[in-house]
Each structure stands twice: as structure tokens, then as C-alpha cells.
Design brief:
CATH topology of the largest domain in chain B: OB fold (Dihydrolipoamide Acetyltransferase, E2P)
Strand content of chain A: 15-25%
GO biological process, one term (chain B): resolution of meiotic recombination intermediates
Organism (chain B): Coleophoma crateriformis
Number of strands of chain B: 8
CATH architecture of the largest domain in chain B: Beta Barrel
Structural class of chain A: alpha+beta
Pfam families (chain B): RMI1_N_C (PF08585)
Protein name (chain B): RecQ-mediated genome instability protein 1
Family (chain B): Belongs to the RMI1 family.
Largest interface: A-B, 55 and 47 residues
Strand order of the largest sheet of chain B: 1-6-7-4-3-2-5-8
Radius of gyration of chain B: 22 Å
CATH topology of the largest domain in chain A: Topoisomerase I, domain 2
Distance between the termini of chain A: 74 Å
CATH superfamily of the largest domain in chain B: RecQ-mediated genome instability protein Rmi1, C-terminal domain
Oligomer: heterodimer
Number of domains of chain B: 2
Largest sheet of chain A: 7 strands, antiparallel
Number of strands of chain A: 17
Distance between the termini of chain B: 58 Å
Amino acid sequence: MVTKILCVAEKSSIAKAVAGHLSGGRVETSNTGNTYIKNYKFQFDFGRTWGHCEVCMTSVSGHLSAVDFASEYKNWSHPPPESLFGAPIREFVPEDKSAIAQNIAAQARGAKALFIWTDCDREGEHIGNEVKTEALKGNRRLQVKRAKFSNIERAHILQAARNPIDLDDRQVNAVATRIELDLRIGYAFTRFQTNLLRTLGGPLAEAMISYGSCQFPTLGFVVDRYWRVKNFVPETFWSIKVTQKREGINVVFNWKRNRLFDRATVIILFERCLDAKRAKVTKVTEKGTRRIKPLPLTTVELQKMATKYLRMNSQQAMTVAETLYNKGYISYPRTETDRFDKEMDLKALVQKQIQDNRWGEFANNLMNGGFNQPREGRHDDKAHPPIHPVTYCAPGGLSADEGRLYEFVTRHFLACCSEDAKGAQTDVEIEYGDESFHTHGTIVLERNFLDVYVYQNWTNSTMLPKFTLGEVFEPTEAMITEGKTTAPGYLTEPDLLALMDANGIGTDATMAEHIAKIKERVYVFTRPRGTNAAGGDSQDDAPAAGRGRSGGRAGAVGARGGAGIDEFIPSSLGVALVDGYDQIGLESSLSKPFLRKEMELKMKAICEGRATREDVLQESLRQYKRVFMDCKEGSAVLKSSCRRFVLNGAA
Amino acid sequence: MANNRPTLQQLSNSLTSIGLPTPAAQFLTPILHPESQTAHQRPLQVLTATAKHRLLSSDISNANVLSTSKNGCLPPNVSNVERKELILANDVCVQVLDVEDIGRSQWEQIEEMEMERKGEMVKGRQVIRVVADDLDVDSTQATTSSSKTSHGPFKLLLQDMNGNKVYGFELQKVPNIGLPSMGMSIGSKLMLRKGSKIARGVVLLEPKYVLVLGGKIEGMDKQWREGREAKLRATVGESRVGSGDGA
């Protein structure tokens, strides 16, 4: 009798694609109790251990089970919300998933083994375990394996099918822990603040004020920046600019001090420059400079760049990336890895792109000697390679957004395989009075990766005439310039993603969801930037920001972006919640990232076997319960913040 | 037994030999002849350390701290903005009454204090509020822009033993000059060397002409720290109305 094997993927599109590859096209398709899910039957030779088998490939649709509190905890006010930290919870298959669960149990009967084909990440591992649970209900003696794969390209899939591994229980446990914590903490705080604030009436009378341990710190970043923009006070600064006209070129020398916030001092220094009459060239250096090619693409970078260069929001970008992955065009889009495995045949991937009429020639040049091994970042999640194109896709085959994102991934990949752009930079430094000034000129010599990476540019600065070391000259002009500091810009999506990433809020895979959530909850709004002055310090006619001191701290991120990009503004409710919780206790305010960051680290510890599910649950619940009790005690403060910002509309 | 005791002259010399100004005799006497009889037989080294500490903690504008005959003081026209340049003819010991970081906007400094107050500067509790965007930075800039923590230049308000005041500007980076949070307290003593330049009423501080002796006047330092934020806010508020001139 032929061995039967059941394969289950995370989504129907993956089941279909994998079945297509394994079967070579000879598939028998049948319907299941769920309209979207099909069973694909075919023959496949799994090699060594399993040999020639009869396969049924089907799928789930994300998580198969859910957790909830027992029915006696359904009431929002009784028993009180804090009881949810310890209340019994049950895991069950929701009604809309029961047909899927039944299909899996039915197909498991008579099968020798179950191969799990869920996505290879933590969430996928947990879904795999849910599939296992349902399958075992149909067949106790089933052997369980999982396929390890990171894209839907044929050879890769065949390889994965023949080399299955075991499910990783640690990852399953980490996700189970996260789900339980989110349930308890989310419900407890949501009920608490909703019950409390509804009593204020007005617009809050029927509001549903949900809490999430990632959403609140995310909201916290938006509100923090909002206040920094609102409270900002501009200040005047002064600078000295020296100009020398030579060979018909006006060479502007910038003050080494960049700028000072004390006019009297600048005037004194300026006078001493003028009194010195002549300036002396103290340094002339010519050196090679380069614009470094990008690092291999991670999820966070993909999201940041898609929001910045493609005008998609991070959630759209992830949805589109997933479609491209499901269609087999790009590798798995949820990855933290920014280095390619040395074993990977990157040239073969480049080769596939030479047929394109936009970047084919560039790819062809890489194949003809231009190829360079990509840079290696420091992150490796050991599960997936950086995001890269898997097969070539002609422009016609995709929707507009898919096409643009595929183009970005491909151009990014080709840029990684190219070379840094190279230029020559001349630096000239002069001493004038007690002060130093400098100028520099750049000439771009080789564009290299920039030729394909159209999202970035690098241009020549004005040519510098000849200056000789030790030479003394009388500057054509010297003047004091004046400027004003300007407020930072409101947060943009790339800023927000960067902050979440830096502060350990959410995983690369979930950040976009949290951002979408706080918008959906109307804790924040987005609007196109440009409605307000964009960030950075306006220099007026003062010299460009000098090295190492480019304006206020806030300017660093806010300065970039430009028109068309969305910025985040908190709603009055968003402001009130953050203000209220911050006032209750800054140490562990819910708007601060510490608690969540800690939780995120504990999940990692479970995955690495350094902590158990029980330990983490106990510890995290104790922490959050303590914060909960503090908040309960400080509920008058929270109410007064809401009264102030929401009910008076003053924010 | 009194034979072993160092003389006033010896103690005074011992102090000037380590760069300190000459104290007034009245200042040294109680150190040489302590009321408590237990401290009798202390060697010169110990007495020097005691005297140094007391001197650096004293307000030199009080009478009987520094010797009026043996120390230089600021020339009477020191603060005259009409004088383009003036050179100090002798060493002058001064104390720091105020420090301003004029390389950064006051608002930036206020925000930093706010973050400190919120506990966001404490290790492990930092909230990262700004992430540098490294995308468009080329390699040369990336390596030179790491000087985030060193601020300044600083503008100081200095006072000599006669109570005369003058501003000082850090023309070149002087080690140990900074805000009290960076180690230079209010009341800290500086020795301005003969040859120091004074331009339009501002002493131009350069490492070769200034020696930071250190020290602190406890009450003044405390008051300065407590009043700093309010003072910055007040100045910023003023500039909002339009005067804008910090001098």
C-alpha cells in the first residue's frame, strides 16, 4: 500500500504553489468545507525516508485556534478587570475555522505523516502546532515533520520537501506565551480604561478604548514628538561665512564652529577675523570618498524604504510583499537577516534579471565581472535570508503596487551585488583671525550601484579652484549670518518604524500592524507632510550644518522626508491617554517602551531555551498587574487628563 | 614642640608651588593653629591639602581669603567693550559664577533636562527618541560626526578677588571647562595667565593661558543647578518676544 502524507500550508496560495511544484502539474483538486481552501492530491517521491507517496496538500487560514476567558468573565465590570490576570482561559477552534480543522483531522486519517508547510517564523511555528493538534485528533499515530523553506521557488521547495525537520517547541511556546499575555493584559486594561472613561460621558460615553502593549508605546512616540513640536521655541543663532572668489568661482568657507547662540561673542570673533585681514590655508587634503551601497534588505528596512520611496504605508508594503512572496517572485518578506549566506548562489539570481529592459543591462554588467559580494550586516535570524527576488517577473504580470515593490526589491538586490559609488573629495581649511573655516568639493567618479538604485542620488558639488597649503590670501568677503532654529517635524512612518525598532517594540513582522491599529483606534491621525513646516534647522543664509553638529537632536530625522509623506498627529484622546498614564507613574508608564521591550526579550529567551513559558508568564503578569493596580489607584488622574484634553477639546 | 610646625611662609609657598594663588595670612592662620589641640603636629603636606581644599571652596571675593598684595586682579577697564584688545599683565585668579553652553540652543538644553527628569537618561531606561538616518551618509561623514556628547563652546562669567566681573569665552577647547553636570562646578577657580587676551570685555580662554584649578562654592553651585532650567526658560521666553540678544 502506498504511503499517504498530509501536507498543510499556512495559506491556500502557498498550498497551491507548493502542490504545483511537487506534483509537476498532475494534481487532482477537490473542495473542502471552507470555500477558500482546497485539497490537492498528487504523487511525490520524498526520497530516502519516505519514498514514493500519495500526498494530500491543504492549508489553514492563519491561526486555527483562539484563546478566551471562561464565560463567567464575559461581563466587563464583574468580576473586576484585574481578575483577568489570573482567570482561567480556554483554547478553542472558533466556529469559522471548524471546517478547516475538520478537514485536517479527516485527511490525517490513514496518513503516515503530517508535513507542516506553515511560514518559517515564530507565528508559523505556532500555527504548525495548532495543525498538529487537530491532525492528531484524526490520527493518533501520525508522525509530524515540518518543511523548512524561505521562498516558493521550485528547486527550493523540492529540497525542503525532501529534508523535513521537527517543529520547534520553543518557538511554539514563545508564541503561546505572547498570546496569553496579550489576552490577559489587553483585556484587563481595555476594560479598565473603557469602564473608567465612559463615566466621563460626552464623546467617551460609548467609546471603546482599547489597550495593547505594543500600541501604547507606539502611541507614546507619536505623542512625545507632538509635544516637542508644539512646545518648541525658535532661537536665533549667528554664524560667520567667508567667501573667496577665485578662477571665477565663489568658494564659500563655512565656520568650523558652525554657529553660536550668542551674538556678542560672534561679533567679537568676527571683528578679530577682519582685523587679521588675511587668511591662511592650513590644510588641503584630497581623498577618495564613497557612497556605500545598501545592506541586504530586512523587513524593517523594506517597510521604511517603501514608506519613504514608494509612498506606501508599512502595512500596505507588507501586504504587497506577501502577495509577491505567495506568487513566488520574492523570498519570504519577514526577516531580520541583513547578510547573505556565503553558500547562496547570488549570481544565479542576478542572471534571472538580465532579461528586464529597465535593469537588465545593469544585471548583465554584474554577470560580466561587475558582481561584488553584498555587504554583511550584523543580524541573522537563522531562518530566512534577506529579502530578494527569487524569479524574474515581467512588468505586465503584476498590479501597479506589486510591480513597484518588486522593482524596489530587485533594484535593491542588484545594488547590493554591485559596488559602492566612488568619488574624490577635496577639503580645504583656512585660519582667519582666531577662527577656522572649511570648504569641500566632491566629484563623483563612479556611480556604480547608484545606476540601478534610482532612489538615491549623489551629485558633484561645485568645483573647487586650486588652494595651496600655507598660502595666504585676503578673503573677498566675510560676513555674519543669522538664522533661526525650527521645530522638528511630526513623526513620519519611517521615523516611527525606526523608533519602534530601536526601542524593541513589536517584531519586524508586527510593527506595521501596531501602527495601523493606533490609526484604526483613532489615537492618531495621519496627514500629508507639508501642512506644517518640515523639520530641521533652517539655516537661512547661514552655512550648511557643519559636521557632527547638525542642529538640534530632533532635526536628525525630521529633516528628511519632504512632501508627499504622511506625518502622524495624535488625537486628543491619544494625547490624554499618554498624559494620564505618564502622570500616574513615569517609571513604568504604559506609554513607555520598557515593559514591552522586556516582554519581547523574554520571548526571545524562550526561543533560545533560556526561559520557560511558566517563568515568563508569571513574571510578566506580576509586572503588569502591579502597573494595573497603580493605574487603578491613579484613575482620577487619568480621568482628569481626559477631561482636560478630550472634553474641552483643548489639545 | 612648636619647632616642628611649618611656618606661614612655608605653607604659603607650598600652595603657590602647585599653581594656587597666595592666600591671605588670616586665611592660613586658623589652618596652622587649629583650635582643636588634637590636630597639632600635622606635616606640611597635610596642611597644604587642607588649605587647598578650603581655598577652592571659598568665595575669593570675600576679604581675607586671598592676599591683596601678592595677587593680581582684573584691570579696572576689563569690561570696557570699547577696548578692542587688552592683555593681562599678570596672573589673575578668578572664580566661575555662571556657565552657558552657547554652542547649543537653550531649547535643546531644556529638552535634555526634561529627559533627565523623566528618567530617560538613566542606563536601561533610555528611550530612543531620534534614530539617525544613515542612508545618505557617506563614509567620511559617518566617522567624523560622533562628537554628540561634547558640547560647548562655553561662555563663563568670572569674578576676581575684588569682586570685579568679566565674561570669558572658550576660544579654544579648554580641558575641564564645562557645565556643572560635566564636572566644573560653580565657584570653580581658574588662573588666568599673564598674556591672556581680553577682547571687548571678554577674556578669550585658551589652554595655554588658563589653568583650571577646580573647586566649588557649595551654596552658589546648588542655587545655580536649581535655577538653571528656569533661567533657560526665561531667556528663551524673552527671545520669543523678539530681543534675541543673549549678551
